[in-house]
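Example 4.3 (complexes with small molecules)
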Amino acid sequence: MIIIVDFGSQTTHLISRRIRELGVEVEILNPEEALIKARNADGIIFSGGPASVYAKDAPTVDKKIFNLGIPILGICYGQQLMCQLLGGEVKPGFKKEYGPAIVRVQGTGYRVQLLENIPKQFNVWMSHGDEVVKIPQGFKTYGTTQTIPHAVIADEKRKIYGIQFHPEVIHTEFGEQILSNFLKICGIKINKQEIDKKFVENIISDIKDSIGNEKAICALSGGVDSSVAALLVHKAIGKNLTSIYVDSGLMREGETKSLQEVFQNHYKMNVFIIDAKQEFLKALKGITDPEQKRKIIGRVFVEVFEKKAKEAGAKFLIQGTIYPDVIESAGSKLSQKIKSHHNVGGLPENMKLVLVEPLRNFYKDEVRKIGKILELPDEIILRQPFPGPGLAVRIIGEVTNENLKILRKADSIVQEELKDVDLWQAFAVFTGIKTTGVRGDERVYGETIAIRAIEAKDAMSANFAHLPYELLEKISTRIVNEVPEVNRVVYDITTKPPATMEWE
Ligand code: XMP
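Answer. The structure with xanthosine-5'-monophosphate bound is encoded below.
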């Protein structure tokens, strides 16, 4: 158990959350009750606070707390207070410091347990007016910043540590590492894997409670969200979950096969792969308008899905909605009555399914973390976003089997060549433009493929990736050599806005 002595910092609660996330019990105490109640703790943390240690009513603790032999970590005001009480000196800083700073580890600082597994230089978050100018006897300085001489101090013998920055805020790099190092100093064993496992087990048991012995269905697309959601539910209710994958024929190269491999063969999930290629192609025949394409695809999807869903006799529908998808809609309960939703194109009300969204409280990186804990392969966890209507919105003009084949081949080359480049998305577009070329002294009139490679932090704005010419040249050469129908490749160099990421 860790005790946090609260000196009024805005982030005291955040410290407790971080400690709890590391699987350790924690209690927040007022300074007056600290000495009495801390006796049975494994470690004590002094929080930050808005006061100056020399102010008239500045909060303080009984000095005897340092004699308990329990490791202490002082953060910001907590560090200043411990220095003042132990004979050091604190003064108003040359200027107040709020925001980022860089800590440089001094001399043998890397050997100090608090800084274990931390690089010699790391970014931190500061928020203080005063600073320690003289450290107490027995202490050494192990880290400084450009403005602060004593950013990390320690009396290793007595296991008393002080840091001027805030390890609990996410802007501090290695903050979690510093806190877990402190817990280790306190003799607490942290088993991160065990904690992660428990976290996922709790999600699975919540799903079990929601669904009980009823049946559920889900639309599996192979994207990271629906994959993680389906796998969680499978772990909760096993064969009572029917996953439906509609192969629209608008998927990328090898996608259906890899999905089969992972979910049917490896996880032994109850997955129905419905071959609906002909239905989709037939419905899209002669259609060139992007919005019409989307509507038709949504409609056919629902028809195909609904048929199979009825056979499954399910009461619940699982959906991989994540927090950013629901940010604007109220409500936080796991289950709610079905409403239209974009992933499955808006299922009709009369299906009367109860919606279960196990990921609705999580961000994308957390979903990926859950996927990793569930041992989903990287090819799924790190998959780029792919639009619901698939390659249909990457073919300008009519979607035909021929065009799809050409696009799929060109796209697989783009994927192969850019697999190690960190991008939001990269893909090929079938532009529908024919141009003149020459191949082996003969005139050809062939297709034009565009390459779109995007750097973005969210779906709202983006820039094209500044890929090296050599790489673009290699992709272009491979496409015109390996896809005989194509004799020209262009690179899309527009930002979003005004262009969207997808061409349609
Ligand atoms: P745009 O083209 O609007 O794309 O700049 C932004 C992001 O959304 C993806 N996208 C879709 N995703 N259904 C989806 O599930 C769709 O109809 C759809 N259209 C675009 C796109 O790939 C990009 O990541």
